């Protein structure tokens, strides 16, 4: 009997050792997935996206055509003391514009989403606020019983008028279906004079938020903010969004990390299209610290500037932030802007540094979006599958306690 008990004890120990090995392997896999997603904040937790908000990719999409007024010639203030871009006629004639549908909705659900979602949605939490209004996370229960999540943007500033609303809506609808620009599901103006958008929900915040978390973790060490392959992926996604916009004769005109939203799969998406305009413009637009030098000379000499080249300069600054120097740091970002060839940190890879120099060059020599995509920094990148996200499945990056 004693020998039998000893054999059972040995077997139990073997089983226990196996379970311990399995648990260690699972923990390693979880750490590997978290590292591959953003490789940024050590306090973050990686979780699957809420299943009730998941979309079924096997069913048909529906779109709703909408009439949007053409860009007017009226000028408007961008925000407070910021720049005042002017509006110009669209170069696209009469493009077909449509609201997008979350994948898998029936025609009845989609009609309800467009007609009643903004007035019947339930607010879950505030996502952000500013001088113009608020953005909150909402859920909508559709006639079929399905519940979806979206971001409701409510604007109530007197600086944001009808012309600017039409511009932002048209910019969003012009990019409908592009996975690298946030989708709009519906919009409206209220009797109280507010403007509302129901937008695709990006649960992972903005690129600006991510860079801040990375900088806190880096603690001043002389190294890239994130691995080179991660920089390459995020940069390629933003370039794809800009390519989509530029090929339609338009420019985003406010490219910056704060206007890059991170989708559920970790895919970057351009947002805030209220500054979007045709490539040939005569007024400044965007955020001052991301504006190309020629924008400040536009009012003093020449017929204006080429807005798509200005987009590429702003993208260059965004790329510099992704690599090394988040805005608001110790002045190193300004030094890179002044002379990228001499002031880019030595730990930045040579190909990435060369790309930065091409993006921050004078307008006549600056890379176009097609030239940037063909740069050797992106050699070997799978451009066709960028929309799947870094991991290819929905994830959320949530802050730990």
From TrEMBL:
GO terms for molecular function: ATP binding; protein serine/threonine kinase activity. It comes from the Eukaryota. Pfam families: Pkinase. InterPro entries: Kinase-like_dom_sf (IPR011009), Prot_kinase_dom (IPR000719). This is Serine/threonine-protein kinase Genghis Khan. Residues 121-378 form the Protein kinase domain. Residues 75-103 are annotated as: Disordered. Gene3D superfamilies: Transferase(Phosphotransferase) domain 1. The keyword RNA-binding does not apply. Residues 91-103 have a biased composition (Polar residues). Keywords: ATP-binding, Kinase, Nucleotide-binding, Serine/threonine-protein kinase, Transferase. Residues 79-90 have a biased composition (Low complexity).
């Amino acid at each position: 009997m004693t020998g039998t008990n000893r054999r059972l004890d040995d077997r139990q120990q073997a089983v226990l050792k196996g379970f311990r090995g399995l648990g260690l392997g699972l923990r390693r896999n979880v750490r590997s997935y978290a590292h591959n997603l953003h490789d940024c904040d050590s306090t973050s937790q990686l979780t699957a996206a809420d299943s009730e908000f998941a979309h079924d990719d096997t069913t048909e999409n529906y779109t709703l055509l909408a009439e949007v007024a053409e860009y007017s010639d009226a000028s408007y203030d961008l925000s407070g003391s910021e720049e005042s871009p002017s509006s110009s006629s669209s170069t696209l004639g009469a493009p077909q514009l449509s609201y997008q549908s979350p994948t898998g909705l029936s025609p009845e659900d989609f009609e309800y989403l467009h007609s009643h979602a903004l007035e019947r949605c339930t607010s879950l939490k505030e996502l952000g606020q500013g001088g113009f209004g608020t953005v909150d996370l909402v859920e909508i229960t559709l006639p079929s019983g399905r519940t979806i999540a979206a971001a409701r943007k409510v604007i109530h500033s007197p600086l944001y008028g009808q012309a600017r609303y039409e511009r932002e809506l048209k910019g969003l609808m012009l990019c409908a279906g592009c996975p690298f620009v946030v989708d709009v599901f519906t919009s409206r103006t209220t009797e109280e004079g507010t403007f509302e958008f129901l937008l695709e929900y990006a649960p992972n915040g903005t690129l600006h938020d991510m860079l801040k978390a990375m900088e806190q973790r880096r603690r001043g060490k002389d190294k890239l903010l994130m691995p080179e392959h991660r920089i390459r992926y995020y940069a390629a996604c933003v370039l794809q969004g800009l390519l989509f916009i530029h090929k339609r004769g338009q420019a985003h005109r406010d490219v910056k990390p704060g206007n890059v939203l991170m989708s559920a799969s970790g895919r970057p998406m351009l947002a805030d299209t209220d500054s979007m305009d045709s490539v040939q413009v005569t007024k400044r637009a965007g955020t001052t610290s991301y504006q190309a030098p020629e924008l400040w000379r536009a009012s003093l000499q020449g017929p204006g500037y080429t807005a798509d080249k200005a987009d590429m300069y702003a993208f260059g600054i965004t790329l510099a932030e992704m690599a090394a120097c988040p805005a608001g740091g110790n002045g190193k970002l300004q030094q890179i802007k002044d002379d990228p060839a001499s002031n880019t940190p030595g730990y930045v890879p040579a190909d990435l540094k060369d790309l930065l120099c091409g993006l921050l060059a004078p307008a006549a020599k600056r890379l176009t979006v097609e030239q940037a995509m063909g740069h050797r920094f992106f050699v070997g990148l799978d451009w066709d599958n960028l929309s799947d996200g870094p991991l290819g499945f929905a994830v959320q990056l949530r802050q730990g306690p």
